[in-house]
Automatic annotation (TrEMBL):
Gene3D superfamilies attached to this UniProt entry: Glycosidases (3.20.20.80), Oligo-1,6-glucosidase, Domain 2 (3.90.400.10)
Catalytic reactions on record: Hydrolysis of terminal, non-reducing (1->4)-linked alpha-D-glucose residues with release of alpha-D-glucose
Family: Belongs to the glycosyl hydrolase 13 family.
Record-linked InterPro entries: GH (IPR017853), GH13_cat_dom (IPR006047), O16G_dom_2 (IPR045857)
Species of provenance: Melipona quadrifasciata
Residues of the signal peptide: 1-20
SUPFAM superfamilies per record: (Trans)glycosidases
Enzyme class: hydrolase
Record GO biological process: carbohydrate metabolic process
UniProt KW keywords: Glycoprotein, Glycosidase, Hydrolase, Signal
Protein's name in the database: alpha-glucosidase
Keyword Magnesium: no
Length: 663
């Protein structure tokens, strides 16, 4: 009998080993993650604050009016239509909202402002049916001072006494050391109840958890497990570099040698944070969470659970998270290290440095904005499309902050609660009351940006030349093999032009992006940049004169029939024909003129030349950007079908057979 039992046990083990595995590994590798700031996305109950979906029982409304119930859940189709892979919700947990959800008083519940757990489960279920992944914000560094743990922790004999970082003050009743909060002033706040100071990297209402206490580490794992049990697909982890502090409280932080002269001892940016940021234990903690989610996915046969990490820190310290479990260490360098005055080399350096230091098996990512930073359309006046096109064509993951898809800009004069209010205004759905965000006639928690009548999703959906349709087309384009698997190369040899080339080595198909950083017409010699083949324009930024060519597409078709050789030969033919047969040439010339583009012969080169539409050059609004207008295009190059027909002397010359437009 004993032998029989043993066989049974071995069999069961074998079955478990065979079935338990992480499913759909790498689903996130070319994903577009879309950050929803729930307060500003969609308001279903008319209180002026965005929500998930308020339970029917909670509001006084007849069933017949059910259709007015709009919320994030009701807008899931928007994400699906747009081609988004995953939505990331900024915190929806119960919170006193001192930091609008980043101060959590109950990690296992939804704040009533946003709805209920049931609402969230409905949203998740509907999202999954639509094939959308849902990522939640995990805020592990601190809790609200209203959290039960903190309230209990005030009692130094409580089992929660060491959940936070408590210290005695100095003999002269000063904070234990000179550590400064990210929001400036001392990171220590005195609490009468315990007659001690507690540490907080952010607001005083956000006491830091003590991760040197193993029980706290287990608590956070249990919270992660709670949400994984609900079925979520991953976490964006907040404020990661601040998780650990040195355990030697006597150490004061040194002043930064190059601190700005306008700063003093009360400013966070005054110090070199060698003791309260980027500590080695922080990386080990993130690694432990990765192990936890991998184990969970493996045990439950779940799709891979993705971890995205928010870390504003040095390149090295950011990249290091790849080695410690983060699938997506956010690349904020496009936000922090470049601005509207940066040149193509500055941008190229960001991309190249990331690629250089990233581990071989890492996946790059690009972030152009979020709820803490001025919107990309405001940081780069008139050039939002340029940055979005860049992040979409670069390899890896793109992260979109809500509103970027319609070119929303900051309300730069807004300051009601927080310096960050300007980038948090409600999503502009249409030109109705409150931009379609809320039906509250008394206004919304933050006012909708005043440009909503002319800049909104409904309008942009109906206009082919719109930020939204460009964004949507970019996402479609990203799904091509050449962008999901293709190689990548940057070129800055043309002054003021950043050239990105992606190439599918198996098919030789390429997609290239040309970003003109200058305010002037710029010539680009594509023959030096692109392999030979047929060149066609796929996409151009909003208001680009290239887009106007769409109207003459039929004429372009005519060109295609005429041309069977290469562009230079073709251009020569046109010049000859111009003298003899004006009528026939008409098919070519107006196309060029309407595009404000010219093909000029210079030696053996084909020069692609775009012209600036002067009327669209903005005057450097908000004073933080130069007057500039992007003329950015994305072209694709398909291999020549019959290469033997190409003249050997013309190998560097692109065949021009068709101009094609997608809007
Ligand atoms: Ca609401
Ligand atoms: Ca901390």
């Amino acid at each position: 009998m004993k032998g029989v039992y043993l066989v049974a046990v071995v069999l069961v083990l074998a079955v478990n080993l065979a079935t338990a595995r992480i499913m759909n590994k790498g689903w996130w590798k070319n994903a577009v993650f879309y950050q929803v700031y729930p307060r500003s996305f969609m308001d279903s109950n008319g209180d002026g604050i965005g929500d998930l979906k308020v339970e029917f029982d909670n509001i006084v409304v007849l069933p017949a009016f059910d259709y007015i119930m709009e919320s994030i859940e009701s807008k899931l189709e928007h994400f699906k239509d747009t081609g988004i892979t995953a939505i990331w919700l900024s915190p929806i947990n119960k919170s006193p909202m001192k930091d609008f959800g980043y101060d959590i008083s109950d990690f296992r519940d939804i704040d009533p402002i946003f709805g209920t757990l049931r609402d969230f489960e409905d949203l998740l279920s509907k999202a999954h049916k639509l094939g959308l992944k849902v990522i939640l914000d995990l805020v592990p560094n601190h809790t609200s001072n209203q959290h039960m743990w903190f309230k209990e922790s005030i009692n130094s004999t409580s089992e929660y006494a060491d959940y936070y970082i408590w210290q005695n003050g100095t003999e002269s009743n000063k904070p234990p050391n000179n550590w400064i909060s990210v929001f400036n002033n001392s990171a220590w706040t005195y609490h009468e109840g315990r007659n001690q100071y507690y540490f907080h990297q952010f607001y005083a209402e956000q006491p830091d958890l003590n991760y040197r206490n193993p029980t706290v580490q287990q608590e956070m794992k249990d919270i992660i497990g709670f949400w994984l049990d609900k079925g979520i697909d991953g976490f964006r982890i907040d404020a990661v570099p601040h998780l650990f502090e040195t355990d030697n409280i006597t150490l004061n932080e040194p002043k930064l040698p190059n601190a700005d002269s306008s700063l003093n001892e009360t400013h966070f940016a005054y110090y070199n944070h060698i003791y309260i940021k980027d500590q080695p234990e922080t990386y080990e903690l993130v690694q432990s969470w990765r192990e936890y989610v991998d184990h969970y996915a493996n045990k439950n046969n779940r799709d891979e659970i993705v971890i995205l990490t928010e870390a504003y820190t040095s390149l090295n310290s950011t990249i290091k998270f790849y080695d410690y479990g983060s699938h997506v260490p956010f690349n904020f360098k496009f936000i922090t290290d470049v601005n509207a005055r940066s040149n193509t080399t500055d941008f190229a350096n960001i991309v190249n440095n990331w690629m250089k230091y990233m581990p071989d098996d890492g996946i790059p990512n690009s972030v152009m904005g979020n709820h803490d930073r001025v919107r990309v359309g405001t940081r780069y006046p008139g050039r939002a499309d340029q940055l979005i096109m860049l992040e979409m064509i670069l390899p890896g993951i793109a992260v979109t902050y809500y509103g970027e898809e319609i070119g929303m800009v900051d309300n730069t004069t807004l300051y009601m609660y927080d310096v960050r209010d300007g980038c948090r205004t409600p999503f502009q759905w249409d030109d109705t009351l409150n931009g379609g965000f809320s039906n509250n006639t008394n206004g919304t928690w933050l006012p909708v940006h005043s440009d909503y009548k002319i800049n909104n999703l409904a309008k942009q959906k109906n206009v082919s030349d719109s930020h939204y349709n460009l964004y949507k087309s970019l996402i479609q384009l990203r799904k091509k093999d050449v962008l999901t698997k293709g190689t990548f190369q940057l070129d800055t040899s043309t002054k003021n032009v950043l050239f990105v080339l992606r190439k599918d080595e198996r098919t030789n198909e390429t997609v290239s992006l040309l970003l003109n950083f200058s305010a002037n017409e710029t010539k680009v010699d594509l023959t030096k940049l692109l392999p030979k083949g047929q060149f066609k324009v796929l996409l151009a930024n909003v208001n680009s004169t290239l887009r106007k060519l769409k109207k003459s597409e039929s004429q372009s078709e005519q060109v295609q029939k005429t041309d069977t050789t290469d562009a230079t030969t073709f251009y020569r033919k046109c010049l000859k024909k111009k003298k003899k047969k004006k009528r026939k040439l008409h098919h070519f010339q107006p196309t060029v003129r309407k595009a404000s583009s010219t093909f000029k012969e210079e030696g053996n080169s084909l020069v692609f030349n775009t012209r600036v539409p002067k009327q669209f050059v903005p005057a450097g609004e908000n004073g933080n950007g130069r007057a500039i207008h992007p003329r950015d295009i994305i072209g694709t190059n398909t291999p020549i079908q019959t290469p033997q027909s190409v003249d050997a002397n013309r190998r560097n010359i692109l065949q021009f057979s068709k101009i094609f437009y997608i809007t």
